[in-house]
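TASK: fixed-backbone design
INPUT:
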């Protein structure tokens, strides 16, 4: 806990992913806050039941798991200076990106689809990779509701998977925005109960648990976690989410986090980690993408950047 001179405070936690996932972390935070407010027991009791997601006997891989493909090349050199910035996507930015899509995709595509596709495109262009190289986007999916019946309420273990969609740099950057959004939409739909069991079986048979990190991105949607609503007795938080982009030594991870800008608009904060010069190119690609519409001309960057 860090107390601020203004009278507020920050609560920071670290998560060991062998124990739980985002949903489990939110359950823990809510329980902690309930007890801080005087509750005698959790409103949702924790459920262990790890056997629900154990590998089958015999294990059998029934789905394609490109998130675990072995790729040895790595374009990030050791000693590269990395910087962290957060980009705010408000109603104006999201609407501008949505107008890049054909009519049949505008209403069917979620904010997650649109921001994820935008980030993947702009990041790939900023990295200046070769057109024939493959890049992949992995979307973290909470699989609890994909089971029949769903995993029990209170299950706090890892209930997520991250299916990967793969394409080449040339196709990603050369096709219309709708092509990328469609890739994101389709890969999310791959997650079924069978897919999750196949992942567990894959890990047992292949002895591999680490995702492919080369030319890869991974994105998690924190909008439904509602960390800002965790109440320790002082009301809702001003901000609830990750401190920065990346995941440990892997810089290609980001998190869609609910936030407000300086004028009180609700939107999505996207924290990212990139090399210094790449970050500048990324910011330019974002501005170019938003400006590629019948939008009023605005001087300066359209995106709020911070160092959260």
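OUTPUT:
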């Amino acid at each position: 806990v860090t107390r601020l001179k203004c009278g507020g405070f920050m609560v920071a936690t670290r998560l060991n992913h062998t124990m739980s996932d985002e949903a489990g972390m939110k359950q823990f935070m809510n329980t902690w806050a309930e007890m801080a407010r005087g509750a005698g027991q959790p409103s949702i009791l924790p459920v262990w039941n790890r056997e629900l997601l154990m590998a089958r006997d015999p294990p059998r891989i029934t789905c394609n798991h490109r998130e675990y493909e072995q790729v040895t090349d790595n374009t990030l050199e050791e000693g590269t200076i990395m910087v962290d910035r957060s980009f705010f996507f408000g109603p104006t930015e999201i609407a501008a990106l949505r107008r890049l899509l054909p009519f049949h995709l505008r209403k069917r595509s979620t904010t997650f689809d649109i921001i994820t596709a935008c980030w993947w495109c702009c990041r790939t262009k900023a990295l200046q990779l070769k057109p024939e190289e493959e890049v992949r986007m992995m979307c973290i999916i909470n699989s609890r509701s994909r089971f029949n019946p769903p995993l029990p309420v209170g299950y706090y273990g890892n209930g997520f998977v991250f299916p990967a969609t793969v394409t080449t740099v040339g196709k990603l950057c050369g096709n219309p925005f709708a092509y990328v959004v469609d890739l994101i939409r389709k890969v999310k739909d791959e997650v079924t109960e069978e897919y999750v069991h196949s992942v567990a079986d894959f890990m047992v048979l292949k002895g591999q648990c680490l995702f492919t990190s080369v030319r890869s991105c991974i994105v998690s949607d924190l909008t439904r976690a509602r960390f800002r609503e965790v109440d320790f007795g002082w009301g809702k938080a001003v901000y609830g989410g990750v401190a920065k982009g990346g995941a440990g030594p892997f810089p290609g991870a980001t998190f869609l986090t609910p936030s407000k800008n300086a004028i009180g608009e609700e939107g999505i904060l996207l924290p990212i980690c990139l090399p210094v010069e790449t970050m500048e190119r990324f910011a330019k690609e974002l501005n170019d993408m938003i400006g590629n519409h019948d939008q009023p001309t605005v001087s300066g960057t359209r995106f709020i950047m911070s160092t959260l």
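COMMENT: Residues 293-304 have pLDDT under 50 and may be disordered.
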